[in-house]
Amino acid sequence: MRTSYLVRAAGAAACVLSLMLLFAGCGSGQVAWTRVLDLGGDDVAAALDGNGSELVLLATSFTGERAAWQVARFATDGRELWRRQYRQGEFSVAGDIALDSAGGIYATGTSRIDGREMCVVVHYRRDGIIAWQRALAVGEAAAGRGIALGPDRVYVTGWTRAKDRRELLLVALEPDGSTAWTRNWRLGDLAAGERLALDPKGDIVLSGIAGTAENPDILLAKFNPKGDTLWTRVYDGGGEDRPGRVTTDPYGHLLATGTALTPEGPRCVILEYHPDGELIRRAAYGERATAEGHGIAVTPKGDVFLCGSLVAETERSLLAFHYRPQATSVWERSWRTGADVAGADLVVADDVFALGTVGDRDRGRDVALVRFTRPEAE
């Protein structure tokens, strides 16, 4: 379970601190099990969550011009417990998923209904039966990208569009799915929320996109439970920057990952901020490694893990690693198949569970769930 003044982060990619990694336990020998799911179409992984004994994953299966999202529940030993397909209207594309303390599942995404794109939120019971679903018609079009659960609210982020502009969307829902409040902000032509989390005080933290289509930046923001803006920050790596997941540690520090596209190739970036928005550090995976950052998770002890892709000339491999600021030695795990593997998300329990997409559009893609072992000495 996971648990509008713009300040541009100083410096660019050249100022990013590099993590010196001594790779330990790299390769398939550190994989406990893998599950590759063919969902019946061209399948793309979206999100993963877990509670220590079970995992829930969300993916989209594309078939021609149609799409449906699928939710699957797994035991941590790799047994698939059930799978459900969801589609409303012409298509439904997956965004994010969250698991509550009772085993209920909340998913968000985008459906086109009668020609109009809407942000959709679905609440599943533990057995996979839909308890309620809501289509949020905001602006001319809207999309759901991220979801997080509070003690008495469900928070959703994405984007809404009016005429030629796109605005960041943040919505709070009551436990029955009714709307508590809606907020939207214009932060450039391409503004969108990507992922959400709650800090220990119940404030909302968000990763998203700000800027223009020519130069999108990573947006990080914090809101109180009423939707009021506490602070916003923008990371500009000098080129195209793509947000990944955001989370907080037990002390309320915000941690986020993403991908900065540089002339030398993609860099997996890690961003850390104090609860008040002061920058702690910016780091990049590896001294010169080309990699993408997508998922980030923090354990109750404060250990930080990330998921993404190692990028080679012809293919990518699934990557998970333990992040320690300014470390000279951390462990990583990777999963290579000979085909392209794009990392999507991760969950950390006794081991590290990583979700990705394997294959390519020409030959078809499937969803991969991989359990990486953690060293006992950690």
Automatic annotation (TrEMBL):
Output the SUPFAM superfamilies linked to this UniProt entry.
Calcium-dependent phosphotriesterase
The stretch of residues making up the signal peptide is 1-24
Q: Which Gene3D superfamilies match?
A: TolB, C-terminal domain
Keywords for this protein: Signal
Superkingdom classification of source: Bacteria
| Alphabetized PANTHER family for the sequence | ENDOGLUCANASE (PTHR42754), LIPOPROTEIN (PTHR42754:SF1)
Please give the name of this protein: Bulb-type lectin domain-containing protein
Q: What is the lineage of its organism?
A: Bacteria, Bacteria division WOR-3
